[in-house]
Amino acid sequence: MRDLPLRRVVTPRGAFAVREVGPAEGRPLILVHGNVSSGRFFSAFAASLVEASGGRLRVIAPDLRGYGDTEAGPIDATRGVRDLSDDLIALAEALELDRAAWFGWSMGAAVVMQLTIDRPGLVTHLILQAPVSPVGFGGTQGVHGGPNAEDFAGSGGGVASPDFCRLLAQGDRSADAQQSPRSVLRAFYFKPGFALPEDEEDALVDAMIKGKLGPGYYPGDFTPSTSWPGVAPGDSGINNAISPKHLDLRAFGRVKAGPPVLWIRGADDSIVSDNSAFDLAYLGSLGFVPGWPGAETCPPQPMVTQMKAVLDEYAQAGGQVDNLVLPDCGHSPHIERPDEVRAELLRLLG
């Protein structure tokens, strides 16, 4: 499918590239993409939502700071993901949206959760697809996310694959290397075996390559650590913003009179999982990262279990939480299983 029209929306926080489909008077739904991607990953899904709603939805998919065609400065990781959630609040104001439904995918789910904590009145419904753990990605253990090390070693900018970063910087569009953007897309964004039409896969690879790289963007800076695996988070860039050193969304469980929540995930997600292929502790337990100190000190992070704990607290406080777990599906249900995701989303929105 061809990309949606792209326009530039200027806010006090930067100029944001926005894809939009549906009538201006439609109910607004804002789709927030994940790491190493852009709003382009929502083009087909956004168009199908508007069609299935009979033109009653206005679907908006921005490129976040550091991604796609958006022009905004680097990410201050010491604020967690608030640079990104504050950007979205400014974008909603520029679009004159008093309230909207928000759909966050992966890292984008952390952004819309932070937005809901800070500005619950802006959110009518919240959809969390394959959400990153509310206590950050990597370096924690247990249901409530206690750190494996005092400096949060095992998370942040230093745990990204150097080969993947190098091939992103080179704009590699091939599938020749195991860590090329295309190979990573096939192996981890989707359940292996899922295949897109060639032109659509090409477009998504281009979107991955288009993101900004470096200390202030992806993956961010890092510091050496005396704790395994030898690297700890820095203070800039997206991977540090979602590290447990800086990200803590447990306050979401205590949001009062919050919006209805729909939690969507693929049963075979290998990125956000209790055994994530991107968690160095899990890889260490399999022998892929040398020197792993063992499960007592550094167990695999139970990412799904940690999210469930926060959403259970939200439900116990009176919030509505629905779950959709899709079998035979990986990290991108809106692409792999769009019919089921679309039907559940439209049901939630009424």
What would you note in describing this structure?
This protein has eleven helices and 14 strands. It has one domain: Alpha/Beta hydrolase fold, catalytic domain (Rossmann fold), CATH 3.40.50.1820. The protein is α/β, with parallel strands linked by helices and 350 residues long. The strands form four sheets. The protein has an eight-stranded mixed beta sheet, sandwiched between helices. A two-stranded antiparallel sheet has the order 7-8. Strands 9-10 form a two-stranded parallel ribbon. The mean pLDDT is 97. The protein has helices spanning 43-52, 82-94, 107-118, 162-170, 181-189, 198-209, 238-241, 280-285, 303-316, 333-336, 338-349, and strands at 6-11, 14-21, 27-32, 57-62, 100-105, 123-129, 140-141, 146-147, 213-214, 218-219, 222-224, 231-233, 261-266, 321-326.
The main sheet comes to: 8 strands, mixed
- General shape: globular
CATH topology, by name, is Rossmann fold
Euclidean distance between termini CA atoms: 27 Å
The overall strand count is 14
Q: Can you identify the CATH class?
A: Alpha Beta
Q: Output the helix-strand order.
A: EEEHEHEHEEEHHHEEEEHEHHEHH
Name the CATH superfamily assignment: Alpha/Beta hydrolase fold, catalytic domain
**Helical segment count:** 11
Amount of beta strand: 15-25%
CATH architecture: 3-Layer(aba) Sandwich
Low-confidence stretches: none
Helix content: 25-40%
User: Which strand order do you get reading across the main beta sheet?
Assistant: 1-2-4-3-5-6-13-14
Assign the structural class, choosing from mainly alpha, mainly beta, alpha/beta, alpha+beta, or little secondary structure.
Answer: alpha/beta
Average pLDDT taken over every residue: 97
Q: How many structural domains?
A: 1
Radius of gyration: 19 Å
